[in-house]
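Researcher: I'd like a structural prediction for the single chain below. Treat it as a standalone chain; there are no partners to consider.
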Amino acid sequence: MSLRDGKQYIESLRDGREVYIHGERMEDVTKHPSLRKAIDHGAIDYELDKRSELRDLLVTRSPTTGNEMRRYFELPRTAEDLLRRRDLIGTTARHGNAIVLFMKEIGTDALNALTMITYLMDKKKGTKYSERVDRYREHLQENDLSMAGAITDVKGDRNLRPSQQEMPYFYLKVIERRTDGFVVRGAKVHTTSAPITNELIILPTRAMIKDESDYSIAFGIPVNTKGIKIISRPERGDLNWFDYPISSGHVTLESMVIFDDVFVPSERIFMDGEWEFAGALANCFATWHRFTGISYKPPFGDVLIGAAQLIADYNGVSSASQIRDKITNLIAYAEAIRTFGKAVAHECVITENGIAYPNPVLCNIGKFSFADNYHMCIKTLQEIAGGLVVTGPTEADCKNPATREYIDRYLGGRKGVKGVDRLKVMKLIRDVSATEFAGEWMVGTLHGEGSLQAQKLSIYRDYDIGRCVDYVKELLRIEGEP
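Model: Treating it as a single chain, here is the predicted structure.
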């Protein structure tokens, strides 16, 4: 098949999927105003390749069929491939008003992790999962499908393991095995874009023990499969561009996906009871996903810097040393993210089956760095801008002849700056720092791609601390073990 366009992607969502918003089932997800805003944002992924200057970055040819495919499906084999993936994610985010498109990024993070871990499973257990993953990848790329990664279980009592829970389905579980597949029951949460993608890729969320083989599962399945129910809570879809210059074109679309006794055919099963590999698969996905995180954040960093400099200029304080100091901090923040993205690729790990794997330690440090410092950057932007960020008039006031004159006259800044132009910058800063969208983005930055504590655990686990200990022993002339 040829690559789809935006209209074909949108039409593919009219497939009878069971999606609920604010207690109401959506018979056609493309007609709900908030969902449609998210859909139109996602459709950018299917239109950018029409731009000649972007086509080589976005499109390549399948190594198995020779047909054109989205470059997201390309398995990175070298550091250069990883750098290209980074540029791909960053470029598409930039064209989405600095907001990641959430179409194929997370799905291929899961797909790449499956390719790596099923190879190890097959080698140790004699299974044939990697062949299934390869066929599934080809199916996705040949049909130009969009995917969501369903990873996080609802967990119940966090102090108890999956097998210890009073309610046995706080973690997604196999309840029946058949000769042609298995049946699962449970739910996944924080599933980004689930209502508006074609496929769900399901992975375990944590390491398991032997008694938890029924929870040690991975598979891919169409969103409209019988028994899959999606509960989503998007924000309003009727926001205007002037007052909401970024969020008017984007919806943070997180979902709870319920698996109400869902049958999964054997050819779509990529892990079935191999509990020893559940943790490895979860960790591998996390690294790929954090690489995605540090790839899509730089355009948003540019927004923070540009808005801060522009409002400082309009306010007449751009030459003040304390303002330049604050903007310098924003520059350091944004460029640190870019640097980690490059370093993660340049210092990648080439796996036994030839995949360029993002450096896990640097990936986790990079994600921790941008998440831990994000709130401070928002505070810095608010300090530079001033209180008009939340007290300024609206677009309607600017359009009203009875009030427009006063806005231009009294809300202007330095000489030559119109009040309405200064207000536009204030509205952008409000949108990224003081709206519902901004609040969700703050939480998402902290917990998206895993919590800060998850990154700390990964950094400590993967870092070669022994090398440093040996060096200190050498300096102190300590020999042997105590």
